[in-house]
Write a structure and sequence with these properties.
InterPro entries: DUF2138. The protein is mainly β and 67 residues long. The protein has one domain. Helices cover 12% and strands 57% of the residues. A four-stranded antiparallel β-sheet has the order 1-2-3-4. A two-stranded antiparallel ribbon has the order 5-6.
Length: 67
Amino acid sequence: SDSQLSKTEISSIKINSETVPVYQLRYNGNNALMFATYQDKMLVFSSTDMLFKDDQQDTEATAIASD
């Protein structure tokens, strides 16, 4: 198995009504990027803070994938 690529602790997000898996790619030791694919789009996040406000998913963060 690849130790640099894994599912994140949040494991998935909702885009429209679909559940989309979120993966994490670790590089240079402590750095990480999270990404998800939806239809023909790839969403890349540098932090889970970009996906959530408090404990709720931030719908604005994934709205671009809905277009």
